[in-house]
Amino acid sequence: MDLAFTPEEQKFREDIRAWVHENLPKDISHKVHNSLHLSRDDMQRWAKILGKKGWLGYGWPKEFGGPGWNAVQKHLFEEELALAGAPRVVPFGPVMVAPVIMAFGNAEQQKRFLPGIASGEVWWSQGYSEPGSGSDLASLKTRAERKGDKYIVNGQKTWTTLAQYGEWIFCLVRTSTEGKPQTGISFLLIDMKSPGVTVRPIIMLDGGHEVNEVFFDNVEVPAENLIGEENKGWTYAKHLLSHERTNIADVNRAKRELERLKRIAKAEGVYDDMRFRDEIAKLEVDVVALEMLVLRVLSAEKSGKNSLDIAGLLKIRGSEIQQRYSELMMLACGPYAVPFIREAMEAGWQGEYVGAAHCAPLAATYFNMRKTTIYGGSNEVQRNIVAQTVLG
Amino acid sequence: MDLAFTPEEQKFREDIRAWVHENLPKDISHKVHNSLHLSRDDMQRWAKILGKKGWLGYGWPKEFGGPGWNAVQKHLFEEELALAGAPRVVPFGPVMVAPVIMAFGNAEQQKRFLPGIASGEVWWSQGYSEPGSGSDLASLKTRAERKGDKYIVNGQKTWTTLAQYGEWIFCLVRTSTEGKPQTGISFLLIDMKSPGVTVRPIIMLDGGHEVNEVFFDNVEVPAENLIGEENKGWTYAKHLLSHERTNIADVNRAKRELERLKRIAKAEGVYDDMRFRDEIAKLEVDVVALEMLVLRVLSAEKSGKNSLDIAGLLKIRGSEIQQRYSELMMLACGPYAVPFIREAMEAGWQGEYVGAAHCAPLAATYFNMRKTTIYGGSNEVQRNIVAQTVLG
Amino acid sequence: MDFEFSDDQQQLRDAVRKWVDRSYDFDKRRAITRAGGFDRNVYTELAGLGLTGLYVSEDDGGMGMGPVEGMVVMEELGRGMVHEPIAQSLIAGGVLSGYAGADLKAAWLPRIAGNEALVVLAYVERKARWKLDVCETQAQQAGGGWTVSGAKSVVTAGDQADAFLVPAIAGGKMALFLVERSAAGVSANGYLTIDGGRAAEVKFANSPATLVTTDGLAALQHAVDIGIAALCAETVGVMDKTVDLTVEYMNTRKQFGVTLSTFQALRHRVADMKMQLELARSMSYYASLKLNAPAEERRRAMSRAKYQLGNSARFISQASVQLHGGIGVTEEYIGSHYFKKLTQVELTFGDTLHHLGEVSAHMQDTAGVFA
Amino acid sequence: MDFEFSDDQQQLRDAVRKWVDRSYDFDKRRAITRAGGFDRNVYTELAGLGLTGLYVSEDDGGMGMGPVEGMVVMEELGRGMVHEPIAQSLIAGGVLSGYAGADLKAAWLPRIAGNEALVVLAYVERKARWKLDVCETQAQQAGGGWTVSGAKSVVTAGDQADAFLVPAIAGGKMALFLVERSAAGVSANGYLTIDGGRAAEVKFANSPATLVTTDGLAALQHAVDIGIAALCAETVGVMDKTVDLTVEYMNTRKQFGVTLSTFQALRHRVADMKMQLELARSMSYYASLKLNAPAEERRRAMSRAKYQLGNSARFISQASVQLHGGIGVTEEYIGSHYFKKLTQVELTFGDTLHHLGEVSAHMQDTAGVFA
């Protein structure tokens, strides 16, 4: 047992840190550090910088052009990016669909899709949820009917994050209504420029446009865009989920934001108010405990001995912590968190801030963070899963 | 709307207060104020004092010899007793079985049983729960078979509070296995001196002997001890539950104990520690809010207009508050709550207290209070009930 | 001890509810937010119902009513999340009635009751946070009158109001002044608030002011307490509706082939919401019934109430969004606006931690409602 | 970064678990409680396993092991709720090894490791509560030696121990002394503790004492930190077993015709217990891995850990009893003893609020495990 990273791991971390320091545009990290609005250009600019270095697919094995890092290295990479104020890697391409294409796609598909994902050129979206299928994803209804060498897709996806920028979308579609709901689902890649695809914004309670409805009206999809076998899509999707582990805890971001919370509390004069300070102290312990939990999972993966099946705990705790720091930042500003001036949440606003610039986006961030206990399998679903592992 | 009690209600309160001051033995109130062990004699001595005044059955209508008080008067009476440090009236006779006998017993039964209950002479116990029937009370199995003019009772009751002192016990027994479980239950009064009745102590985690198992082995019970009709017992028992309303919140005791908590915190030097003091402050608000909730129910009863169906809320909140003040008292004493010296929890102990006399019973009380969220319909069952009223 | 509403109070409630149902639906409210978060026409309608003059005596053209009527009105306005700040009229009516001289009363109370003047409290300062006794705004005697200089933050409808109640330091001690928005040196920079309503930064530069009272801190405390009682009642209305919406959704929305209301874990959450709602309602009653108590007792009661309401609002708002799932975090769904409204409650007249501190600092040896 | 146990550590764990399973079942433990809460023969058995000398160097007859081994041992002892205080031997071994002179080490460490001497920390004072720097016990230099006078409370197995580590003020500064129980002027008044173990009030009246170190506060802080790390590990063991018991009961006990584990609201409670358990286990690792860090970093880590463990213990103990229902509050059921043990954890080496205060007072600008 040892808490310290090995010298090799430390060296790895320092190399990443130096590179990020050199290559992360300051205007972008400024926005991240201050919860200001990130444009499509910001996100894609950073994605392409990573892509050029070969690190956008930082979880990829060497055979597909990735760095072939182990779990600890991936964690250190994520941590250095987060602490430096890099935008989160938009996961739909490199983290979500790419592993599925690698594992279940054919050579042709791999050759066709992976380079655009690795370089950050092509923006992918995820088409899973539907209006009637939230926690109960397997009940999805979007149909794909095979007609010759094409699928005709009809239906609707929703909560599709950043689909307004999407060029391709990977979808779970129903290709059969026989048997259990899970067995009739296929995994299809769809060009969003195809006729019949419509994207409609969903405005969130913070006023932001982050998610969308995506409608499919007799969309023709070449059959060659089917991943693996028809009706096996559920299996592939589950494989994908198993690739998301420690990252869902978002502990690195939590560390960054906890430091920001302390800065804001100091600026607002509440860091020395024992009542408020105690709330930060509680969160401090929460973050340390979450990080230890994450490190335990990493250690188990590294050793390959006993895997720790606690992804549900990481999701629950991580999201609770995200909500809490966003809430405390807002409370730190007190009355000055009340103004809701959208322009003040953009970088470079020349208006007069109410209170201080750091106050402007805090309520919006608190609102936005409500999603974290809902998406990616709501915390209630996660508790079901945890209970299942404990109680049977 | 008016928060103040009417002059008549105030006068009523003052009369009660004066009488209690005059008649409550100081040795008994000393024990109550300090959570020391109450003997059977203590409890019965007080019951007989109340009985002599005609106030043991303080909830009884005039026609049965009670004072005929309204809901507010009953509340004021309970409050004055609680604040003065009177032991809680042992409810099984005057509060639980008596109303059932009044409502569903025949004249003969009323004549035979009510006087002994009103005077405090006869100690009653309650035979509801069984080893297999806790929250699911209707699944009870204790059988009563009619043989001529007798019932032959076989089975077991459990969690029978103070049954070691009991002379009579009112039981729910199964007289039929047909139909829904609820329909085959009868309400039977059983003389605990009958052959075949055995009482075995259950020692609680605080080391106290408060509850028992009661075994019935071919116990002969005269058929005249059946209340109302055979197989209608469930209805009577439910009637009984509807007679327990605001009292289950135990808010008067909470007020007394909150004051005690403040005294202990001062003596232990933590009243001026902001962190600890804040915990008391939170409880202070909890108690005020609970009292307001109780007063709202009383007001609704008094006005007869809109009844407030929130007994479940009173039970949940009241029990949580009881647990919390017992926990805070223990924490106030810190390391001095660790010793567990049973003799030091008796009045008049001549030994050397560790820390201070007030520290001695605190952990035991904290342990004992765990029961409050379990008994009388666990808080989970109460939440089911509340959810039913809200969601249908 | 009586918590029943009189027939008159019930009629008042019905009248306000009917107005909300008829004249202030979600689309209307949303349009007002888009237009800036305040609609003077709506305010005029509310004045027509007599609500702006609730705490103004009948002699001065008001309704001459008390805290219970104020509570009834605010509960109903809360159910509809009405932006237009009747609570500010209650504050202005109450404070001027209680602290101003006869001339000032005669000049302003009829105008408040008659909707000629929207008068709002301008007291938040950058260095004060929730403290009422921290004030950098200064007052100077000039000729026969006064001027004030300073800046006040997050003033409700501050660029729409006709006048402000402004605490300022006069001769080393806090006094309370009335300043008209049209007065020289007054500027108001308005913006939307997180609940979709309106507020402003208001600055005073040697602005002519009328003295309301030299007992400024007492008047300010009283003003805030009127505001807290009104806010508590409003919050009860907001939460009541939030619970209704949640219940309706859970009984409609299906997952895994059954309605959400089938799941015990979610049912228990709703039971906890009901608990928080009823505790909050109880403490709102308590606040209104203590609003005319002596200052110390009144202030203790308001802090207790605001602490409970803050806790309840936090639990109910967060639980409601969570129980709704995705739809609960969308702008188009009304529920998310209830969430935002409840968030703003926390950030108004002192947050929950602040009032915990007040409760803690002013505890007595005795306990309970009558202690 | 590696949280895997070595083969040696795994073997140590297995050995202790085997001993607990074989030699310390519930009946045995209960009998020890009835007989006073401490059994020297059991302590001797534990010494036979090498546990009393875990932190004593091999040169001094001990095992020369470190915090991770201490953690492994304490977890297993926790699972069995073993009364006999190995944590005290860890403290005595660690503190004497770190702070005592060569002679004192040579005289006592072999006896501790060899079970000839049970040495326990006697530091709680009436006026100190959880503060380590409040001490009224006085030390006087007399001839070539020292005497101490004062009273220490809730000393683990205080009337069974052979010697005490006693902080006392010498020349205005805290020093640490070793006092034998057989020394003149020592009295120990023993009693059961709430977990069924044993403690005592110990008084010293001009009792001959040996100076361990003049750097008494640092040594005491270190002693308590060794105790906290051990207690955290022990608590993980206790909670681990508590969760197991609860799961077993819920999968057995039927209500309404189905097992308790069928009810979603109860299932979610179990998920929350699992959460608290794993957070606690993580922080117990953290505590043990920081036990040899520089004093300031070490102390900060121990407070963070004890705060988490306190919260987890409270939640798990209370939830476990509640999920059991009636049986959970009976003396005859083993689960209620786990509850009591977890209650005592809260009252040992500083409660949760105390350690929150420590975390709060020593926060840094950075965050996380490596900050």
Automatic annotation (TrEMBL), chains A, B:
The protein's UniProt keywords, in alphabetical order, are: Coiled coil, FAD, Flavoprotein, Oxidoreductase
Report the residue ranges that make up the Acyl-CoA dehydrogenase/oxidase C-terminal domain in this protein.
231-390
**In which domain of life is the source organism classified?**
Bacteria
* Keyword Coiled coil (UniProt): yes
Gene3D superfamilies named in the record: Acyl-CoA dehydrogenase/oxidase, N-terminal domain, Butyryl-CoA Dehydrogenase, subunit A, domain 2, Butyryl-CoA Dehydrogenase, subunit A, domain 3
Q: Does this entry carry the keyword Transferase?
A: no
Spell out the coiled coil positions from the record. 241-268
Domain Acyl-CoA dehydrogenase/oxidase N-terminal span(s) in chain numbering:
6-121
Q: Which cofactor does it need?
A: FAD
UniProt cross-references to PANTHER family, sorted A to Z:
ACYL-COA DEHYDROGENASE, ACYL-COA DEHYDROGENASE FADE29
What the record says about family reads: Belongs to the acyl-CoA dehydrogenase family.
Protein's name according to its UniProt entry: Acyl-CoA dehydrogenase family protein
| Native species | Ramlibacter aquaticus
UniProtKB/TrEMBL annotation, chains C, D:
Q: Which residues form the Acyl-CoA dehydrogenase/oxidase N-terminal domain?
A: 6-115
Q: Which CDD domains match?
A: ACAD (cd00567)
Keyword annotations for this protein?
FAD, Flavoprotein, Oxidoreductase
Q: Which residues form the Acyl-CoA dehydrogenase/oxidase C-terminal domain?
A: 215-342
Which Pfam families does the protein's record reference? Acyl-CoA_dh_1, Acyl-CoA_dh_N
Enumerate the cofactors the protein uses. FAD
What highest taxon heads this organism's lineage? Answer: Bacteria
The record's family statement is: Belongs to the acyl-CoA dehydrogenase family.
PANTHER family tied to this protein: ACYL-COA DEHYDROGENASE, ACYL-COA DEHYDROGENASE FADE28
Query: Can you name this protein?
Result: Acyl-CoA dehydrogenase family protein
Q: What is the lineage of its organism?
A: Bacteria, Pseudomonadati, Pseudomonadota, Betaproteobacteria, Burkholderiales
